[in-house]
Specification:
five-stranded antiparallel sheet; 5 strands; about 30% strand
Length: about 80
Amino acid sequence: MPTVLRIRGYRFYFYALEGTEPPHVHVDKGPGTIKLWLRDLSIARMEGLKPAEIREVLRLTREHHNHLLTAWHEFEGRKS
């Protein structure tokens, strides 16, 4: 599970064994977690985050989108 970004208490990371899912990122803060699709920044799964935290994760993901997408493609390329 490589961490690709830590900011404002949020940890952005990827899982190694997720099959052929499209580009996405997992984000945790405390007990809360969210999985976002990087193509359209939609929520795939979420639990334990407050609405303000969800908005902040979405904002940070938009702000760092290019970095996250590039890191995802590099990570997936290394697994092949």
